[in-house]
């Protein structure tokens, strides 16, 4: 079995266990989700939006409120998380279940997106984050933006190791690659729990 397939199965199993309590527990860790949606709204008024790793649909609900006339799509690897998202969003959003390792516009014959959001998803794509960022770039419509909020780094080796046990890599690698591959429009670096870790809010485009 390929390593990426094994990791994908591990992630699915992880969220099968956590899906039912995800929204009640992640408020204490996943900071900046509302902020990244607001920040994206300062840079683009999208007609088509894609969220990569949409989970239970929390961010898609925020996006729908901010961009009520936009066409919204989401994808996630976990069927259990998507089941919650469908109950939350109804038929307002189109959802797909699969890995994001190639452009969605090609495999689902969709036009490009004006805004692509990845909220605490890329740090869990190990391996796969490079392919995901490349796919996001290819899925953008001309003039579109990519918005990312995610863990950045931590000075605590024990905390980094604990997060790795929960499939999260936080070594500052995402921001470096985003800045190399995109034209930066906005960047905010924030601290959590008196500096236990840092997370970043990033907006960029491919122009």
Automatic annotation (TrEMBL):
The Methyltransferase type domain, residue ranges: 50-145
Annotated InterPro entries: Methyltransf_12, SAM-dependent_MTases_sf
One Pfam family per UniProt: Methyltransf_12
Protein name: S-adenosylmethionine-diacylgycerolhomoserine-N-methyltransferase
Organism: Methylohalomonas lacus
């Amino acid at each position: 079995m390929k390593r990426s397939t094994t990791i994908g199965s591990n992630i699915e199993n992880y969220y099968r266990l956590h899906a039912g309590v995800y929204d009640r527990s992640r408020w204490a860790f996943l900071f900046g989700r509302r902020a990244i949606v607001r920040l994206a709204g300062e840079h683009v008024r999208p007609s088509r939006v894609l969220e990569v790793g949409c989970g239970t649909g929390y961010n898609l609900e925020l996006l729908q409120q901010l961009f009520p006339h936009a066409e919204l799509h989401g994808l996630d690897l976990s069927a259990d998380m998507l089941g919650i998202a469908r109950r939350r969003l109804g038929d307002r959003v189109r959802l797909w279940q699969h890995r994001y390792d190639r452009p969605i516009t090609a495999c689902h014959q969709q036009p490009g997106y004006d805004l692509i959001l990845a909220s605490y998803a890329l740090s869990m794509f190990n391996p796969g984050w490079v392919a995901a960022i490349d796919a996001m770039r290819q899925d953008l419509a001309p003039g579109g933006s990519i918005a990312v909020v995610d863990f950045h780094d931590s000075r605590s080796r024990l905390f980094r190791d604990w997060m790795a046990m929960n499939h999260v890599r936080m070594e500052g690698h995402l921001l470096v690659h985003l800045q190399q591959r995109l034209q930066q429009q906005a960047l905010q670096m924030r601290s959590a729990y008196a500096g236990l870790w840092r997370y970043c809010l990033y907006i960029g485009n491919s122009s």
